Amino acid sequence: MNTPAPTPLPASARSALIVVDMQNGFVNPKGSCASTGFPVAELAPAIAPCRTAIDVARRARVPIVFTRYTYRADFRDGGFMLKEKFPMLADANALVAGSWDQALLDELGATDSDFLIDKNRPSSFYGTPLESYLKGLGVEEVVICGVTTQCCVETTVRDAAQRDFRTFVLSDAVAEWNKEQQASALATMGMLFAHLITTADLNRAWQ
User: Fold this and answer.
1) Would the N or C end of the chain have less CB density within 10 A of its end CB?
2) Which residue is catalytic, options 50, 119, 145, 201?
3) Which DSSP symbol is given to 46?
4) Range 12-205 has CATH code 3.40.50.150
5) What is d(CA 53, CA 137) in angstroms, rounded to the nearest whole number?
6) Contact criterion met (CB below 8 Å) for 53 and 197
7) Is residue 151 annotated as part of the catalytic site, yes or no?
8) What would the mean pLDDT of 51-76 be, rounded to a whole number?
């Protein structure tokens, strides 16, 4: 009988943790997405596991990168997706630079020593200095968590893998608006773009 291969795990010495879009606007029940009818309660289960991953990374001295979806106050940087697919976000004054809505959740405990990437598209790499930051830090492997799984997380994961970063997704620290989309996104990422692990796996790897 064949023995299953062990789950690949990231090495702390060459890794970074990327926390995607864990912002008031997306996850807080008083944020803009909640005000426009998105079921933000479905995203809440990602908060505690993301904080666990952050704490594990801090203990292991692994660089932490937080991303924030961010718009200008006039929303002229939103492009096709904002104008034609999600115009309600502009109507709700969502994710404007410098606003409470744009800010990271307090629960995450971000510090000035962390890296912060503002973006106006789903990918954390598109039009941002993320790749240059990672390469400057000597990072070869990225561990990704946050929201939402099928949109900004998956787009970031695909872009990381296509840049040949060895990519890991914390399956218990990502969340989506509904369970079907969550399962589909995880299956797609796990098939080709990333290794799926849990925060418990991460803690074991980075002890």
Assistant:
1) N
2) 119
3) G
4) no
5) 19
6) no
7) no
8) 98
